[in-house]
């Protein structure tokens, strides 16, 4: 009977240890889920903004597509979508940053700030170049191509920083899309930015949503 009691207690201890390990693993997964930002809320809104916003601009030109939008309508659609995307990603990034401490928080903050700093600088450079008297089509190609180039470089940096090959590959895709937009001319550049740029971001959002399904909205 003593042996049986000893064996029983050993089995109980083993079960308790396994249960404890399983509980710890579940808690760790839940902690990661809450602390990691919902990256679909970064890629999705911007993908929709690029796809629909630049698609609307493309439809302001006389093309083979029978639909034609007034310039004011296209400008309003683009402005609303880009502002909404900026607000969503800013709020998502701020909420995600609250759960980070130390070097991870610093690295994430520096990478986050690289986006507005990069686009502010790009805007200043492109504005200065535009003042040299470039033709309208050249100005249009300059802005669309350089914008996608910057986005691609920032995704390359993000992929290297977070050791994410998919994000790094997305950066390569965005840079290639920027080059193709310039080669496509006007108004083909808007179609490239819309379909290749926006479509690529939406595919990225779908990929991350499937890879990291979440039971609730990111904190």
- Overall pLDDT confidence: 82
The geometry reads as: elongated
**How much strand?**
under 5%
Structural class label: mainly alpha
Biggest β-sheet strands, sense, barrel: none
Q: Total number of β-strand segments?
A: 0
Residue stretches low in confidence (pLDDT < 50, at least 5 long) are 214-219
How far apart the termini lie comes to 54 Å
Described by its quaternary structure, the protein is single chain
**H-E order:** HHHHHHH
Radius of gyration: 24 Å
Number of H- or I-type helical stretches? 7
Helix percent band: over 70%
Which properties best describe this structure?
single chain; 219 residues; mainly alpha; 7 helices; elongated
Please characterize this protein's 3D structure:
α2 runs antiparallel to α7 (188-211), α4 (103-130) runs antiparallel to α5 (136-161) and α5 (136-161) packs antiparallel against α6 (165-184). It contains seven helices and no strands. The longest helix has 34 residues, at 2-35. It is 81% helix and 0% strand. It is elongated. The chain has 219 residues and is mainly α.
